[in-house]
Design brief:
Oligomer: single chain
Radius of gyration: 20 Å
Organism: Sphingobium rhizovicinum
CATH topology: Amidase signature (AS) enzymes
Number of strands: 17
Protein name: AtzE family amidohydrolase
CATH architecture: Alpha-Beta Complex
Domain Amidase: 22-419
Strand content: 15-25%
Length: 446
């Protein structure tokens, strides 16, 4: 499959039709998606109708937009007209259908993109593994015996497998950056509240954001422009780079360290204060807001929840409000302190995940010398960044033939163009870059 920019150019020029791309995409999904356990619904009728509309516009001499005819999918927590918004839970499988599309889907449709699928996730986005009690565990297309990460694992897997050119996920504490790192993609957690959240099933409002998964940096920049309404380019200038140390230097793969050494050998190392406390506060705020959101449903239908998610939500619902307020007050102090500390720099470099993808049959990772649940701790490096609300771009290390692994490039609020500029420099040097999984996949799930 070609990328977003190439497909749109072919459709806008009339060289290939939107209908052609949709039909080819539907064939790929039918033939290759099943082993991944990544797609929850294929929207064939809707996609064909949207593609026909685009082709008619091209035939009449019109311009359907910069995403003309590009098929894509969304995490199963975006409102899609006529469908229940399940958020990955059997609790809402028969909910009333959405009356309209989510705001981001409307923006993409106006730009010519064609929605073709909804995609698997951790129930209510509570986890880093996409282990879903209703739809199953999403597999990593680079090795089907391994996790794709979460909670936006389905959104990552279909792009990494070459089944879709891009997808949308959501990121509360790392739910885009973690699967992007484990599947070898670009994944963006934007500046908090910067991209449209209307019609997206919430988890924790303090941290929730949406963002794209892409197989190229050019595709990522284009999608950010469309969703944000701003230019992704800025004046080419030297960027001031720093590395994050302290807890960000613990639980790191040696190849991540080597890559950061190559990227910025003389960059200053910044240690953020109270980083462990920040992650604990992020856990607390997430649990409190998630628990309160689902409190009534837990009272009525607790047994319909995934047991692991249910127990965490119940624990969150029982947290006292004054403890939540203290965590929020600490968050304000932490953000202000971090902003002062990083003021001299444009881009901070840190690992995106502590390791490559863990096994599905043993979903644990090594944290501080002990085995820990991947579902909780794959976000050890992403969660503190969500706590700040700063933008973070996951970039894949270029390592064909090996399990993917990524870094995150972190900026100050509203500085996504600087992250794209620096990521382009790394891509040109061959340090980062996407290697999509083969169509046959690997591993054995029999």
């Amino acid at each position: 499959m070609t990328g977003t920019v190439a497909i749109a150019q072919a459709v806008r020029s009339g060289r290939l039709s939107a209908v052609y791309h949709v039909e080819q995409c539907l064939i790929r999904l039918a033939e290759r998606a099943s082993p991944l356990c990544a797609v929850t619904r294929t929207l064939a009728d809707r996609a064909r109708q949207e593609a026909q509309r685009i082709d008619a516009l091209v035939a009449a001499g019109g311009d359907p937009g910069p995403l003309a005819g590009v098929p894509y999918g969304v995490k199963d927590l975006f409102d899609v007209t006529g469908l229940p918004t399940t958020a990955g839970s059997r609790l809402y499988a028969d909910a009333p259908p959405a009356a309209s599309d989510a705001a981001a889907i409307r923006k993409l449709r106006d730009a010519g993109a064609v929605l073709i699928a909804t995609l698997n996730m951790d129930e209510f986005a509570y986890g880093f593994a996409t282990i879903n009690a209703l739809h199953g565990t999403t597999r990593n297309p680079h090795d089907l015996t391994r996790l794709a990460g979460g909670s936006s694992g389905g959104s990552a897997a279909v792009v990494a497998a070459g089944l879709l050119p891009f997808s949308l996920g959501s990121d509360t504490n790392g739910s885009i950056r973690v699967p992007a790192s484990l599947t070898g993609l670009y994944g963006l957690k934007p500046t908090h509240r910067d991209l449209p959240m209307g019609g997206v099933f919430p988890f924790a409002d303090s941290f929730d954001d949406i963002g794209p998964f892409t197989g190229s940096l050019a595709d990522m920049a284009l999608l950010w422009e469309i969703l944000s309404g701003r230019s992704a380019t800025e004046e080419d200038r030297p960027l001031r780079i720093a590395r994050l140390g302290g807890r960000f230097a613990d639980n790191v793969d040696p190849e991540q360290v080597a890559a950061m050494d190559a990227i910025a050998p003389n960059a200053p190392v910044i240690t953020l204060p109270d980083i462990a406390r920040a992650r604990s506060a992020a856990f607390l705020i997430t649990a409190f807001e998630g628990g309160r959101l689902h409190q009534d449903a837990l009272t009525r239908n607790a047994m319909l929840f995934d047991p692991q998610v249910r127990d965490r939500l119940i624990a969150g619902a029982l947290l006292p409000h004054d403890l939540y307020e203290k965590a929020q007050a600490f968050r304000i102090r932490f953000i202000n302190g971090v902003a002062d500390l990083i003021a001299p720099y444009d881009v901070l470099i840190a690992p995106a995940t502590p390791c490559s993808a863990p096994l599905v049959d043993d979903p644990r990772i090594l944290i501080d010398g002990a085995m820990s649940a991947a579902r909780a701790d794959l976000g050890i490096h992403s969660q503190p960044i969500s706590f700040t609300g700063f933008p973070s771009l996951a970039v894949p290390l270029y390592r064909p033939g090996r399990l993917p692994l990524g870094l995150q490039l972190i900026g100050k609020p509203g500085t996504e163009p600087a992250l794209f500029q620096f990521a382009a420099q790394l891509e040109q040097k061959g340090i980062t870059g996407v290697s999509l999984a083969t169509g046959t996949y690997s591993g054995d799930i029999a």
